[in-house]
Amino acid sequence: MKKLHQHIKGSTLDDPTAHREMHQNWSRRQFLANAGMAGLGTVLLQGLPFNASASLAPLGERDDRILVLLKLNGGNDGLNTIIPYSQNAYYTLRPDIHVPVNEQIVLDSKYSMPVEMQPLYSHWQEGNMAVIHNVNFHPYQYSNSHFIMSDAWSTGRRPGASNARSSGWMGRYLETVLPSYLQNPTPMPAALNIGAYSNLTFKAENFGQMELSLQNAEEFYELVKDGLFYPTDIFGNCPAEDEIHFIRTISNTALRYGSVIQDAYNKGTNEANYGNTAIYQGKELAEQLAIVARLIKGGLGTPVYHVQMEGYDTHDNQNKNNWHRNSLGDASTLIDSFLKDLGKRGWKDKVTVMVYSEFGRTKYETGEGISAGTQHGNISMMMMFGDSINGGTYGDTQDLSLYGNNLGDINNVTDFREIYATVLDDWFCAGTDLTNAVLYNPIDAGDTNLYARISNLFNSTCSESSTFGLLSNALILGHNPDPNNANIVEIKYAVKQPGDVTLTLEKEGQKWDLVNDYHPKAGSFTHKLDRTQYPLLTGECTCHIQAAGQRYSRIIQLF
């Protein structure tokens, strides 16, 4: 028997205005309640509580600093990207896949790059391209698994920690500076991810994904055209199709930012050529970067974007049809086009591009002749671009003569969390206390919260208008169990200036005062909460801190 459906006004496309209003008015809490189903869709828009009394920087009152993360998926061969041409071992270890001397562009007395990367040379000459060598964890740690190392880069946490996949480094940052994201959401997506269902980088500690994720450019164009990307009018009335219809409806409704993205995309234009690519993977990246450039120029205001390019897992046939070098050539052409596109409207000094891969390749080749390739290596390299970057090389040079052909062929590693810390401190102007709290993992005994910064990587200076999100005199940085006492929970907070500070916990209408003291200096502090003294304080609670006339609130989960 055919089912009869009673349509609610706005639930179909028959009335476009009502339909759009229904999208706008959908409660984020309703979406969260259905997140188990909606998680099967592409878009995950879970946000963070909490308190609207915290002050957010309005879009027009900050200087719109933007970070674009570009991942080269598969493990890029860093030695054939930025070539240590002055080391003879480079040529002897790679007799078949080394880049010939006459096909290199010399950068300085130590390094060069293949001629396919010529589009980046002008950025190098202008001092807007930085290369960071020997990147991994410090102390050194390695896995040859794409999944484990991709997760490590996304989370900023060492593999093996019990909470290694619980949150991403950017998700932890966004949840701290946007504590009212659920009740008072930003007018634009906090982050935009193109090329995957969701991205662990943007997973918050307690409240799920902070980004709007689109699997590919086609889904984006569906969103721009119709405000949704899952057609729902193609199904019959069998139970299976009803379930698919429901999932798609939930996912479409979650796109509360559809009209904002449409407006920005329509206001922006592409003023550079993204079409000159040699391989299909280059075409995919071209579409992603063209979209990001247009959204930035259209004034979307999203501070973080993530795009990706496939094809860098070169176990064999690395030079067949010039595969790896053509991949680098496409990436170089598109980064150059992207930066030139932004420069047409004065955005180039507001955008930093960070290029990374989950690991590098072995210094020695495997196989021979045209079939030769490289295996998963233990260190990576990074490149950064933008007018706010001080160009040049950073980190110690890899000595190819060390350790024979073993995987342990590294010296003086640069911990990539040092780079994250530098981005948060010097680009997003997060401040030392917040940055250390985002990157420190209290559950990992081998972790440290004292990550060095890469000196002079950025030439820009910080001001209050440089800060995305929260403008507050005090922050609740996080909490964790005391490793030496199961009854103690450490609540970490920071204040920006001396003064009276109150710290309270609230649950179901009841409040408990934890701190009510004068703090003679700015800095970060830890309150040790004895759970035996507060038996009702379990599960989800709201933590409030007040200092210098401002109040900041954040939901925490007590253990």
List the helices and strands and how they pair.
Elements: H1 16-25, H2 28-33, H3 35-38, E1 66-72, H4 88-93, E2 104-106, E3 112-114, H5 121-125, E4 129-136, H6 146-155, H7 169-177, E5 191-194, E6 203-204, E7 208-209, E8 212-214, H8 217-226, H9 239-253, H10 258-267, H11 280-297, E9 304-309, H12 323-343, E10 351-356, E11 380-385, E12 392-394, E13 414-415, H13 416-427, H14 432-439, E14 474-482, E15 485-495, E16 499-507, E17 510-519, E18 523-530, E19 539-547, E20 550-558
Parallel strand pairs: 1-9, 1-10, 4-12, 4-13, 5-8, 5-9
Antiparallel strand pairs: 2-3, 4-11, 6-7, 10-11, 14-15, 15-18, 16-17, 16-19, 19-20
Helix pairs in contact: 7-14, 10-11, 11-12, 13-14
Describe this structure as you would to a colleague.
By secondary structure, the protein is α/β, with parallel strands linked by helices. It has 2 domains: 59-466, Alkaline Phosphatase, subunit A; 474-558, Sandwich (Immunoglobulin-like). Helices cover 26% and strands 21% of the residues. It has helices spanning 16-25, 28-33, 35-38, 88-93, 121-125, 146-155, 169-177, 217-226, 239-253, 258-267, 280-297, 323-343, 416-427, 432-439; strands at 66-72, 104-106, 112-114, 129-136, 191-194, 203-204, 208-209, 212-214, 304-309, 351-356, 380-385, 392-394, 414-415, 474-482, 485-495, 499-507, 510-519, 523-530, 539-547, 550-558. The strands form 5 sheets. Strands 1, 4, 5, 8, 9, 10, 11, 12 and 13 form a 9-stranded mixed beta sheet that branches. A hairpin with a 3-residue loop joins strand 6 and strand 7. The longest helix has 21 residues, at 323-343.
